[in-house]
């Protein structure tokens, strides 16, 4: 070692010691003077090269959501997350009989009630399982608790791909090797179900105080059932026509899946008739897909899927159609639901968010108005799906989280009853994905370091999922127009009111909430922030 290097090292280590002393000086007085109730576990922030931070969790540490206290009438509590680094920062408030003079006012009217909510959640893909199980056991526990326990954001919905999808390490279905096996004799779950999906589902249910609801969606039938003899690519339609043995076999595949999951202790709430049926029309679609026209889907449900599920005793598992972009509304359900013999098997309409930025949300309202007896439910969304987004994983990207809450608020304000995120966890490159269709996720796992990163998207999801349990009802809130940077919605859950507000702009706003049974709550909405207020009447 040369003299220069040695002295450089000496100086460097002195600097490090100096920095540590400086830190102690900064932190010690606090520790000595502040006698507080048990500290909540705050975000351990880390900045990468994006606009905000992630919260780092590992085997020994993970932030938790501060407990929602039991509130007396007139007491309120708010939770704030912001681009500047707040994550579920809790504040207590109380209603006053006088308010400030703020011109911005949100007036709650719980006499006007809209849709009842189902809930919020994410998908148990193979990729999610692979990533979660790649962590040390204690870190896995922190990750699962972050999503499903009362320490976390308490998801009550889970989506399960029925077989493989692109977020698998190989393309597969549950009956690939037995062409002509219309009786599904050789149908069998795969290693992925037993190793990655079912065990995680059981852990989520066991730690969850809320009742969980799972829905399953198929990406493709076995290749031998399809015109293109492949799980992906163009012309990906089922062979034959509704009512034939091939369509009966595909319907039976759904029942067999429901039965095998039941046998493994997972009861389904719902199935969707097909993930993104429009993908099957693309000339050269690059991952698992299968096409239906709305007329084909109507006939398949009426002649095969509906009667098939019924005859095998699965009336308790409800059926959703759609499961595709908002753009197919309201025309798709108009075709399928106009036939009462198909409609009688259907309960809801699933929507994906991928084209929402160019699609009028009033398509949702139109759909609701046409079919008030059918719920609309968000079945998939993720950031970085557009091909021009590079890199796919943007650690700490506030705007991705903001797009989540903006879309959720827009959906909820247009009759949607819940919202399901895509992969629960992905790796540092946004995979694994056998078709290289990498995207971002609210939780990114860094296997090498045995840690994971909770992104702004995670907290934006939590501003809804934590506070809006199944059965919450959207109510009227009269406030400023929602066509700018301010978005909001209000809900009631028993005696509690929940108000969520998102500010997408660079200015701080003073506002007031009016609840005429209680008075006024003066509030401050920080720049680039999302807040959830809850109070009891
Ligand atoms: C885990 O995270 C905590 C908080 O960020 C940190 O203090 C600790 O050193 C980390 N442990 C490991 C093994 O990285
Ligand atoms: C509140 O809602 C009820 C029921 O829709 C309506 O009759 C009433 O006019 C609303 N009140 C206000 C102040 O908007
Ligand atoms: C099921 O798989 C076995 C083993 O590969 C094969 O021998 C049998 O013919 C298959 N059954 C059907 C109905 O295709
Ligand atoms: C079809 O897609 C595959 C996979 O993305 C690609 O390798 C192939 O070149 C494409 N073929 C055509 C004709 O575009
Ligand atoms: C099937 C159905 O009810 N269709 C109606 C949906 O609503 C539009 C008006 O918004 C009517 O024109 C359709 O007949
Ligand atoms: C903090 C805050 O509310 N800032 C902005 C939020 O959105 C409204 C409406 O667009 C703006 O007027 C505020 O300045």
Average pLDDT metric: 93
> How many domain regions?
2
C-alpha geometry: globular
* Main structural class: alpha/beta
Determine the strand fraction and express it as a percent band.
25-35%
Q: Number of DSSP helices?
A: 11
Tell me the number of strands. Answer: 22
* Rg (CA only): 25 Å
CATH topology of the largest domain: TIM Barrel
Please list the strands of the largest sheet in the order they lie side by side.
4-3-22-19-18-17-5-20-21
Helix content: 25-40%
InterPro entries: GH, GH30_C, Glyco_hydro_30, Glyco_hydro_30_TIM-barrel
Organism: Clavelina lepadiformis (Light-bulb sea squirt)
Main location: membrane
Protein name: Glucosylceramidase
Structural features, described:
The chain is an alpha/beta fold and 537 residues long. The protein has 2 domains: 75-113 and 476-536, Immunoglobulin-like; 118-470, Alpha-Beta Barrel (TIM Barrel), CATH 3.20.20.80. 28% of the residues lie in helices and 25% in strands. It has 11 helices and 22 strands. The strands form 3 sheets. Strands 4-3-22-19-18-17-5-20-21 form a 9-stranded mixed β-sheet. The chain has an 8-stranded parallel β-barrel with strand order 6-7-8-9-10-11-12-13, surrounded by 5 helices. Strand 20 and strand 21 form a beta hairpin. The radius of gyration is 25 Å and the shape is globular. Mean pLDDT is 93; it is low at 1-38. It binds 2-acetamido-2-deoxy-beta-D-glucopyranose (NAG) (6 copies). One 2-acetamido-2-deoxy-beta-D-glucopyranose (NAG) is lined by residues 284, 286. It is a peripheral membrane protein. This is Glucosylceramidase. It holds the Pfam family Glyco_hydro_30.
